[in-house]
Structures are given as structure tokens and as C-alpha cells.
Specification:
alpha+beta, 4-stranded antiparallel β-sheet, 54 strands, globular, transmembrane, DUF3352 domain-containing protein
């Protein structure tokens, strides 16, 4: 055969081989690959959307966008998207590129402290390939980035690196799909998965589930609970991870649909249970969901609530009790229905949060009898009456943990009582008292307008539910965070707190759990239509014929339970005025000026609210029509000049005591029949009282604390007998009361006050001073005062200098420092309505103006409020509005202030 022919044949073979190789490669790239199969198995979250631009457009139309758009991650992404669009050199923008395209995003944990994302983007057409190539080429031309190409296990990885900060973006292509991540490690992990031939989806349990076919669904969201503790471990302290692991072991994964409303984000779908031995599911399987009736007794100030619905709560325990044996097993078995662990709002990050455990009993009386057997006999401090409830102390260590498992540890001692068909456990008797009072006053979830949307939108029954009020839980979240992450949390606090409610619930549905996540954002669009943009405006004024001579007092009109304001004018007429429309509900002409506050107490045969107050020498009680009740007023003496009326209810039974102190240091205590109590007829003290007398209860004993302006502090019993160790002399003048922090004994009960010269002094109920600290006093004329908020849960310290006021938190942190034009006396008021809903009011007595400041010490409104006396404040949580009531000349003013 001629040599030339041989060459032609060899060339033809080479061309055929090249053509076959090229065809095979082309066929391979055209082969469809599910993006889900590329996702590594350790993904915590996987999000799939088929039209990201449509989701973004809807998001920008909601209340959520104003907050989301301020997130650092979103701001960086917006900058990057703007840069990409500027580099596209054509009509195709990234928005058009992603329209009607299925893309994935997965989240992964890297080590113990970091997490990162992977993006999966299909590139389907020649135009789309050209778009990507143009972007990369133009990115290199900017000079801000450098491009490095490397081979890894047969794949070409491109690293795009920022020249200034070395930020990295790595990507490679597989079957016309781009895999992109800021982490080269994650990109390499996917390549290794491909080369192992292990292209299996981590969501293979849901291969036939796709919510994207529904018009109002924006994404499929897959959650892998087996790796969720790894992600939470990046943020939380190690001592919380055991609880996280236990709760995460209810299910192994979820597939949920993502929906979006104006101020709500919903995730709904189904979860597969975690069937491994020892999981939470293995302990509660077979239990039907229970109705969430606990809302009737959960306090409004609840921060975090873990709710469980169980047929038998003993199933939560890992095994039989070692100590107590069969008895504890029987006791645990008497609980069935709802179990709820409630953490209350903490006012700082240094102290352990108050917590209450609600456990439903099928037979509360039997359960109570069994609990009493743990503490036979009654000794001082182990039993206490609070209204109709009996609070008992059980010294069994970690009793809730013994009864219900490790999720409920942290009760070194246990106080318990019965409320409806729930047994309540706390580790602090003061917490129990406050909770029972709040339930009695109706300050519970089911009656709170702000909670109504969350409760209506969440599942009405569940097996496991977690509810978080972000504002109330803020200090708990900070306390729980690892030190490395606390800084980021604080930096983004204003953003995070806008998402004010979060809930997740699991309800059994055959062999799965119906699962619901709900994230609510503070509603703003409707509020903005009500309040002008300047942030403060005068809403209404109510004119009187005579000058008003008192502060406005917040009350409730008994006839229809509507909000009411009580004021007095210079003709000595006392008025009850409707807070909404300004109608005059009643009036009463008095013989002298009222001294101190107007209080409301249930009184008489019908136990309806009546108005109690003091005048110069008398104590008054008037009914809903402004008429004096029978036997009132109580005249204490013609020559007296009372300062105020204070009311004590020793056992919360409605058997009230009226305490009145005068300007000479005399203290009277009477019952509601006008009988002066033994030892108080009157109690003659050496100086005028610096603040109203205070009643506390410690270890079952009633204590009346009295602080005098000359620096002496007394502790009396109900008959006026002094407690050992008192009085104590603080050796400084006082104009402040006491802030109590009650413990289980007199020695562990601490009281804090601030002297006029700036000493913060703490002492216990044995009379021992435990702390004395001097605050900075920049001027010899500087004076200090402790200012508690109305609920008595926290306080601030006010320092008044000539023409200047500074406010400090309990830990000494400066909150506000403000200069004023005049040097007239200033009075500070502090209002706290939970979370960051704090209002500081500084009233100048000379110009008669009140200045309002929010939690960030920023003025609310451009102009102060004209007022002759301190103001009264109501708060509307639904609309995030403060209503300020003030009296000025002949006007009762109502001013609306929009919170930020």
C-alpha cells in the first residue's frame, strides 16, 4: 500500500477518534444532573428556589425589607450584585439570568467557629455561558481581583481573589452547572463526592416532594437536624449543647415550603423522626399532640417557652429514679398533658434568668398530696399563702430533673403551687409570687393583644413547641452566646430585635411530624399611616375650667373597664376622665389637695375597684360615681400633713393595709375599716421618709422597710417590732427608696439604695452592709437618686448636676448625658415595658417641660412636652406606641409617641 494512503488512513482514524471523544464529552455535558445530588451530606440547610428575582421583588414590598436590607450580609450582596451588573456589558442582568431558574443554596459548618454557603447555578444556554464568561473576563480587567486556575482531581477550579482583603470565591463547572462558594474546602468536597460516584441527595427522603409548583411558595427548605447542633454550637456556649442535642434528636430532617407575607415568614411541611436509640423521639413516640392551653397562664413577660404535649411525662426520663425509686416513678407518672419550661425576661446578662416550669396533672389534688410527702411537716419558710394559693418549699435537689429528665435541670431547690390543673415549679419564691399576681391581673398570653397574631397563626396543638419573644429574650441570648459571637450579636441588635417573635412547632401526623416555623417582624406599615414621620405629635387636649394641680394618674373606669385618667384642679375637684375620648366619667369635690398617687383596689361587697388616695390629713375611698364609701374618709389628725398613701397586701388575699406617712416622719398603718394597727398609731421616726415604705416577704415573714432622709433604714414586722440588726445608719442623706433582690433567707436577701452624694450601698436583712461603692461626682453640687421602673424589676441611677442630667444603668454603664439651658431642678422618670421598650423622661420644674428619650438615649420628637407635673405613660405593643398623659395649666394633654 502506498505510503501516502497509509498517512490518509491514519489521519482519518485520528479524526474519527477525536470526533468520538468530542461527541462523548459534549453528550456528557448535556446530561442532566440534579443539583440536589451535588450537595454534601453535612449540609445543615438547603434552599431551592425557581425564581429568586420574584421572591426579592415581593420581599421589597413588605415590612421585612426595611430591616433585611440593613443586614451586613445583604448590604455586601447588594454591592456585589451591582458590580456584576455593571460588568455584564449587555442587556442581560443577573436578575434576568436567574429568572425562572432553579438554583440551590446550602449551608455548612466549618470547624467549631465558622459556617459557609455553597451556591448551585445551572447554565443552560450558549447566551448564559457567554454571560458568565463576560463577567469573569471583565472582573479581571477591573484590577481589583486576580484569577487563579488550578486542577483538583480532574476538575478545573477557578479562584477569584480580592487584591485588598483576600476574600475568595471559588467555582467549577459540572454538567453545565456552576458550583460556587467562598470556601475552597467546600468546593473540593463536592469534587471528591463526584469522583466517588456518590451522587445522592441528602434530601432523598423527599424525592417526591416539591412545593414550588404552588404559586405562593418561594422555596423548598430542607433542614438536617443531625447537623443542626453543629451550627448552633458555633454560636452557643458549650454548657447548652446537651440540651440542643436532645431537642434536635426529635427529627432527623424536614422539607418545608417557604411563604412570605407583609411582616411574616412561614415555613411549613413535614419532618421524619429520629429513630436512633436514646433520641427524644424514642421517648415520646406514640404521644398525640396536645392543645396549647398553657397560653392562659403564661405571663406576658415570658422570653422563651419550651412547650411539650405528652400522654405521660415520665417517658421523658432516661430510666427509673435511683433515689426515691418507685415513689418518684409514681409521682412522675401522675403528670400528663402539657409541660412547659418558661424563662422570664432578664434585666441584665450577669444574673441567671428566672424560670417557671408548668406541668399539667390529670389529678392535681393527688399530685399535690404526693409532692407534700417529699417535705413532711411544716417549718418556718416552707409554706406561704399567696391569695388563694399555697406556695411550698421542697428541698429535694433538682426535683424537676428527677421527674422529667435532663432538659429540666437547674432547680437547686423547688417552690411549687397549683394553678388551675397545672403544678408550677420555680427555684425562687419571689418569681412564684410575681407570676401568680400577673396571672390574677390578666397579664397572660391569651389576653395580650400583641400575642394574638402569633397564637392565631401558630399551630393550636403540638408535641414540641419553642416560642421566643426576641425583645424579652435579648439578655438571655447574650448570656447564652459564645464570647466570640456576642460582639456580632450586639452590633446587629437593632436589626435582630425587629424580628420580635419566633416559633417552631412539631405535631405528630401518622409516621411524620407536621412542622411549622414562624418568624414575625415588627409591623410598621400600618403604624406609619397613623403617626406622623416626625415621631411625636400632640393628639388631643381636654380643657378644664380651672388650673390642674396634680399629675395624671392611670386608672380603669369600673363601668366598662376602659382606660381612665384621674386629675385634680385648683377648685379641689377630682375628675375621672376617659383616656380615649376625654369624657368625664365622674367627679368629686374635696376639701384639700390630694397627696401622692391615686390607687385602685377591689373593695366592698361586690369587690369592684374603688379609688383610694390621701389628702393633707385624711384617707379617702370613693366609688365609680365619685361618692365616698361608707366610713370614709379616715381622718388621722387635724394638724397632719401627709405625704402619700401606700397599700400593703401581706398575703395577697385582699386584706389590705393602708400606710400613710407625714412630713414629720410619722407612719400610720390602718385596715380597711379604719382601725389603726397595733404598733402604728403612729410609728414615730426621727426624720421624714425618703420614699414610700416597702413591704417584702422573705422566708414566710412579712417585713416593712422604711428609709429615712437622714440615712437610717428600718425593718419592721407587721406589729411594728424591729427586726434584729435594724435600724442601720448609712451615714449619708437619702432621697431614694430601696431596690430589693429577695433570696431564700434574710442573709441572702439584698437591698440596694443610692445616697444623695453618690454612694451605691447594698445590705442584707440581717442589717449587714455588703457593698459600698462611690460613683463619680464631677461637681460638689451633684446629687444622685435611684429611680425604679413602675414594675419594680429594674432601676436606673440619675445624677443631677447644675444644668445637666446623667443616667446610669444598674451596672454603672452610662445611658444618657444631657445638658439643659436652665439649672432648675430636674425629675427623672423611668418606664420599662419589656425588652428595649424603655422610656426615660426628664422633667424640668422651672420651664415645666418634659424631654423624652428612647433606649438609645435618642430624643423622641423635636420638641419637649409642656407639663406642670411628672407624666403618666401607657404603651401599645401592637403599634409600638407610647401614649403620654400630662397636665399643663387648664389642659389634660394626650400625646402619641412612636417607638423606633
Amino acid at each position: 500500500m502506498p505510503k501516502k494512503t497509509i498517512y490518509w488512513l491514519c489521519g482519518l482514524v485520528v479524526l474519527v477518534a477525536l470526533g468520538f471523544y468530542g461527541f462523548s464529552k459534549w453528550t456528557e455535558t448535556r446530561e442532566k444532573v440534579s443539583l440536589w445530588t451535588l450537595v454534601p451530606d453535612d449540609a445543615v440547610f438547603v434552599v431551592e428556589t425557581n425564581n429568586a428575582p420574584r421572591f426579592l421583588t415581593h420581599l421589597q414590598q413588605t415590612d421585612l425589607w426595611a430591616t433585611v436590607s440593613q443586614m451586613p450580609y445583604v448590604l455586601r450582596m447588594e454591592d456585589q450584585l451591582t458590580l456584576l451588573d455593571s460588568l455584564s456589558n449587555g442587556r442581560t442582568q443577573l436578575k434576568n439570568f436567574l429568572t425562572n431558574k432553579n438554583v440551590l443554596l446550602s449551608m455548612h459548618v466549618l470547624g467549631r467557629t465558622e459556617y459557609e454557603m455553597i451556591y448551585y447555578v445551572p447554565v443552560n444556554t450558549v447566551a448564559q455561558h457567554r454571560y458568565i464568561r463576560t463577567l469573569v473576563e471583565n472582573l479581571n480587567k477591573t484590577g481589583m481581583y486576580r484569577q487563579e486556575v488550578r486542577d483538583y482531581q480532574g476538575f478545573q477550579i477557578t479562584d477569584i481573589i480580592h487584591e485588598n482583603n483576600n476574600d475568595n470565591l471559588s467555582y467549577f463547572s459540572f454538567h453545565n452547572n456552576l458550583v460556587i462558594s467562598p470556601s475552597p474546602v467546600l468546593v473540593e468536597e463536592i469534587i471528591r463526592k463526584i469522583n466517588r460516584g456518590q451522587l445522592e441527595s441528602p434530601a432523598k427522603d423527599y424525592k417526591n416532594t416539591n412545593y414550588l409548583s404552588q404559586p405562593d411558595v418561594y422555596a423548598n427548605v430542607f433542614i438536617n437536624y443531625q447537623h443542626l447542633p453543629d451550627l448552633l454550637g458555633v454560636f452557643l456556649k458549650k454548657d447548652l449543647l446537651d440540651d440542643v442535642n436532645m431537642l434536635s434528636s426529635l427529627c432527623r430532617n424536614s422539607m418545608l415550603e417557604l411563604k412570605l407575607d407583609n411582616n411574616r415568614l412561614f415555613l411549613n411541611g413535614f419532618s421524619h423522626p429520629e429513630t436512633v436509640e436514646g433520641s427524644l423521639y424514642s421517648r415520646i413516640k406514640g404521644h398525640p399532640a396536645k392543645e396549647f392551653k398553657m397560653r392562659e397562664v403564661l405571663p406576658v413577660r415570658a422570653a422563651i417557652v419550651l412547650h411539650m404535649g405528652l400522654n405521660q411525662m415520665s417517658s421523658l426520663r432516661p430510666g427509673p429514679a435511683k433515689a426515691g425509686g418507685a415513689f418518684l416513678d409514681s409521682l412522675s407518672g401522675s403528670f400528663a398533658g402539657e409541660l412547659g419550661l418558661c424563662y422570664l425576661e432578664a434585666y441584665d446578662t450577669k444574673t441567671s434568668p428566672e424560670k417557671v416550669l408548668f406541668a399539667q396533672s390529670a389529678n392535681p389534688r393527688l399530685t399535690q398530696q404526693m409532692l407534700n410527702r417529699l417535705q413532711p411537716g411544716q417549718t418556718d419558710g416552707t409554706v406561704e399563702k399567696h391569695g388563694q394559693h399555697t406556695i411550698r418549699l421542697l428541698t429535694a435537689r433538682e426535683l424537676p430533673q428527677q421527674l422529667f429528665g435532663d432538659l429540666f435541670k437547674g432547680f437547686e431547690q423547688t417552690y411549687y403551687t397549683t394553678l388551675q390543673n397545672y403544678i408550677l415549679f420555680t427555684d425562687d419564691v419571689a418569681t412564684m409570687r410575681a407570676l401568680l399576681t400577673e396571672v390574677e391581673e390578666g397579664k397572660v398570653w391569651s389576653k395580650a393583644p400583641a400575642m394574638e397574631p402569633l397564637l392565631n397563626e401558630s399551630q393550636q396543638e403540638d408535641n414540641i413547641g419553642l416560642f421566643v419573644n426576641t425583645n424579652h429574650a435579648w439578655n438571655l441570648l447574650l448570656r447564652s452566646m459564645s464570647p466570640q459571637k456576642q460582639v456580632n450579636l450586639l452590633r446587629n441588635s437593632a436589626i435582630i430585635k425587629k424580628f420580635n417573635y419566633f416559633s417552631v412547632q412539631f405535631s405528630t401526623a401518622e409516621k411524620q411530624y407536621y412542622t411549622s416555623y414562624l418568624l414575625r417582624h415588627q409591623e410598621e406599615s400600618r403604624v406609619k399611616t397613623v403617626i406622623a414621620d416626625e415621631g411625636i405629635r400632640q393628639e388631643e387636649t381636654f380643657d378644664f375650667t380651672s388650673r390642674l394641680i396634680s399629675s395624671p394618674f392611670l386608672t380603669q373606669y369600673v363601668v366598662d373597664n376602659s382606660p381612665e385618667i384621674v386629675v385634680q384642679d385648683s377648685a379641689l375637684v377630682l375628675y375621672g376622665v376617659g383616656a380615649e375620648r376625654g369624657r368625664r366619667n365622674w367627679s368629686d369635690t374635696l376639701s384639700s389637695r390630694i397627696m401622692g398617687p391615686v390607687l385602685q383596689l377591689p373593695f366592698g361587697k361586690d369587690k369592684r375597684l374603688n379609688y383610694f388616695f390621701a389628702t393633707a390629713n385624711s384617707l379617702h375611698c370613693i366609688d365609680k360615681k365619685g361618692a365616698e364609701e361608707e366610713n370614709f374618709p379616715f381622718i388621722l389628725g387635724d394638724s397632719l400633713r401627709l405625704q402619700r398613701l401606700t397599700v400593703f397586701d401581706y398575703d395577697k388575699t385582699g386584706d389590705y393595709r393602708l400606710a400613710a406617712d407625714d412630713n414629720l416622719g410619722n407612719l400610720f398603718i390602718l385596715d380597711l375599716q379604719g382601725n389603726v394597727q397595733s404598733g402604728w398609731n403612729p410609728m414615730r421616726l426621727d426624720s421624714r421618709l425618703a420614699a414610700p415604705p416597702q413591704h417584702v416577704k422573705v422566708n414566710g415573714r412579712n417585713v416593712i422597710m422604711v428609709v429615712l432622709e437622714n440615712g437610717y433604714v428600718y425593718a419592721f414586722g407587721t406589729q411594728g417590732e424591729p427586726y434584729p440588726g435594724f435600724p442601720i445608719n448609712l451615714n449619708a442623706n437619702l432621697r431614694s427608696g430601696l431596690f430589693p433582690k429577695l433570696g431564700i433567707s434574710f442573709r441572702r436577701s439584698l437591698f440596694t439604695t443610692v445616697t444623695q452624694d453618690g454612694q451605691v450601698i447594698s445590705f442584707d436583712l440581717t442589717g449587714e452592709v455588703t457593698k459600698r461603692e462611690q460613683l463619680l461626682r464631677p461637681d460638689r453640687r451633684s446629687t444622685f437618686k435611684l429611680v425604679p421602673e413602675a414594675g419594680g424589676k429594674s432601676f436606673i441611677i440619675a445624677r443631677s448636676d447644675p444644668g445637666r442630667v446623667a443616667l446610669f444603668a444598674q451596672d454603672g454603664k452610662l445611658l444618657l448625658d444631657r445638658r439643659f439651658v436652665t439649672s432648675s431642678a430636674k425629675e427623672v422618670q423611668y418606664f420599662h415595658f419589656g425588652g428595649d421598650r424603655k422610656l426615660y423622661v426628664i422633667w424640668e420644674t422651672g420651664p415645666r417641660k418634659a424631654y423624652l428619650f428612647d433606649v438609645q438615649a435618642q430624643p423622641l420628637g423635636e420638641d419637649p412636652i409642656n407639663t406642670s407635673y411628672p407624666v403618666a405613660v401607657r404603651y401599645n405593643e401592637v403599634q409600638n406606641q407610647y401614649t403620654i398623659f400630662s397636665t399643663y395649666n387648664r389642659l389634660l394633654q394626650k400625646t402619641l409617641v412612636q417607638g423606633r
